[in-house]
Amino acid sequence: MKVKSILISQPKPELKNSPYVELIKKFKLKIDFRPFIHIEGKTSREIRQQKIDLSKFSAIILTSRNSVDHFFRIAEEMRYPIPNALKYFCLSEAVAFYLQKYVVYRKRKIYVGGRTFDELSEIITKYSEENYLLPGSDVLSPRIEKKLNDLEVRWTKGVFYKTVISDLSDLKNVYYDILVFFSPSGIESLLSNFPDFKQNDTRIAVFGKNTASAAENAGLRIDIQAPLNKIPSMSRALYVYIEKANKKR
Q: Is the Cβ–Cβ distance between 209 and 236 less than 8 Å?
């Protein structure tokens, strides 16, 4: 079946040269962006209730842009002057680069992993004497928690924000050929908003193993998946699928 419309469960990219623009032009598609989940920050009072004192930590583990934003937001709310000696351990180059929104990059001690937490943990082991804070969401990957415990370093989990299911009731009678998901929370939002959802001819695209597992556990049929060998991104996975599906017969 040909693909004419796609709903991507994320905010619309700010970049004008987004790869999705190429998809729209190439295949004359309708692509809509709609976050299925959103982030709500915890208050400084709620952070204190977790018995977290920012001054006690010598290093911060940052796994996403959200963790960066909410760490600095809380520091500001608490009027905590972040010391220049604070070390930042970033999951990826993208997260490290995003730090420039808040600090002068060249004047800070910033350590960057590769694309996985295992790669970052190799760097963390070299600084085992530090006291680490991991500011994150209410849903922390069990794999990350286990990895940090196995490293036997001092670390504390801080819930600085939470993931909340968005209201999608206005989409009840709207049909798309492909629904694209990037997290298990997106799958949860779909089923929470539409408990009677029937997939039928709707194609489901998922990014990452955890998202795929959530889709399968929900009884959904996965038609498009990334990353795979030679298909590193969701936009590429969509391109390959649509090129085949829309090919004139």
A: no
CATH node for 5-36+168-245: 3.40.50.10090
Q: Which fold has domain 40-163?
A: Rossmann fold (3.40.50)
H or E, element range at 94: helix 93-98
pLDDT tens digits, one per residue of 58-107: 999 999 999 999 999 999 999 999 999 999 999 999 899 999 999 987 77
The share of the chain scoring above pLDDT 90, in percent, equals: 85
* Residues 6+ positions from 148 with CB-CB distance below 8 Å: 121, 124, 132, 134, 155
pLDDT, tens only, 121-154: 999 999 999 999 999 998 888 889 999 999 999 9
pTM, rounded to two decimals: 0.77
Residues 184 and 177: beta-carbon distance below 8 Å: no
Q: Is the peptide bond before 195 cis (omega within 30 degrees of 0)?
A: no
Please answer whether residues 110 and 101 qualify as being in contact, where contact means their C-beta atoms are separated by less than 8 angstroms: no
Number of alpha carbons in the 13 Å side-chain half-sphere of residue 126: 9
Would you list the domain boundaries of the chain? 5-36+168-245, 40-163
Contacts of 203 (CB under 8 A, 6+ apart): 3, 177, 178, 179, 223, 224, 241
